[in-house]
Every structure is written in C-alpha cells, then in structure tokens.
Amino acid sequence: HIHLLSMAKRIVPDRRLSSFTSEELLGLIGGATLKKKAKGKALPLGQSCRKAIFELVKGAFRKAIADEKFTANPLEGYTPGQVPKKKRKLPTRDQIDKIVAAVIDEYPRSGKRAALTIRFLAFSGLRRSEAASLMWPAVSEGEIEIDGTKTEGADRTLQIGPALQGVMDEITAVYGKTGRVVPLKCVRGHLKLACAKLGLQKLTNHDLRAWFVTYALQQGADVPTVADWIGDSPTVVLSRYTSIMDGHKKTAA
Question: Which of 48, 52, 60, 67 matches a 20 to 30 Å C-alpha distance to 28?
C-alpha cells in the first residue's frame, strides 16, 4: 500500500482536514493524472487505482475521527465508481499451453520460471499479490490456506485440483519446498510478448484469475464454490470475472 499512499499524497494537498469538502476531494481523486515517464505526458489515473486511493483517503478520515482529531468524514456516504468490466477474449485450455510454450521459447533465462508461475495463477485463481506472498507452510495435503487481505472473506481454503497439483509437483522438483511457492512475482511482460507472438488478446496476471473462474464454471463447478475459491462474492464472480470462450459456446450449443 506504500505506492498508493505516495500517489494519494501527490493528489491530495497537504492541508488541514477541516479545509476539505466532499466535492473537492471527489474532484481531486476523480480527475487525477499521472505523468508517463517515457514521454512526459499526463495520463488519467486508472479507475481501479482511483477507487483504491478513494478508500485510502476515506479511511484516513475515519482514523482521525477515531483518534478524536476530527468530527466528520466528508466522504462518508460516497462510494467510488465501479471499475468497468473488461471485455476479455480468454484463451482456450489449449491456447494456455501454447502461451506457456511461447514464454519458454522467448525467454531463455526466465521462461521456465515464468511458465510455472503462469500455470499456477491460471489453475489457482489467486491474485498476483496472494501468489507472490504464498509460502510452502501454507500448503498441506490437497489444500492451500490463503491469507488474503483484498476483500472481506479473502482468507480462505483452496482445494488443489489435478492441474494445479501437477504444476506444484513441477515447482517442487526444481526448487524444493522452501520459501515462496511461485518462482516469479510478476509475469506481465512474459504474457504480453507471448500473446503478441500468437496473435491473441494480451493477458495480464489478473486475466489469469478471470480465466480460472470462467474455466471452473465451464467444467461444472457451481458459482458459490468458485466464489469461495477466489475469495469474492457470487455477485462479483458473475459480474466481474466471467467471460466467454468461443469453443465452449459450440460445446454448450
């Protein structure tokens, strides 16, 4: 959260709390921009990032009230706009394998580590931050205890399916069972290059989470179970994560 805090400090002027109005704060956060280092251009701050900063500032007011340093929260009763659902064209199961193979081909040094991480994310549905902090003591026979902090109910138990177990066996064979489970913290660059090479829509770490949700539902898992696996509500599963795979439409028909 240090990164969000530094952005919030740049967006919100350093003034007394009593000088802020709700309209001013909403305008500051809603119209926030960041300078792009490469070209020096000011770009709009992403909706997801604005939402996180909104909650951070709102929480700062709550803490000031709890510490009896302030009496009213100008953001109380306001909620940030929901991040628009991304229009995803998710790869098929076979295309995931092709992406992994392309990553290994294109990255001689880090490709194998990235490939294992990509498969782990796709078959577990974990957020990148959850996977990056996952240590081997949290893994027991057939289950993973996930310490999530993103949403209410993010702490959860994930049952290990055959595909995920296969990836974890490969990780164990190469790196053992010490320290962090996944070999790499981020595979965004690896995914971008591999998808471009194969002519597929660019995937992000978070898209792999959506892929897990969509594929699990297509295999017959019920919505409440999938929601519990990813640490979100059934409403979020249906409204934010589910997408369509062309091959499945033909099978369903």
Answer: 67
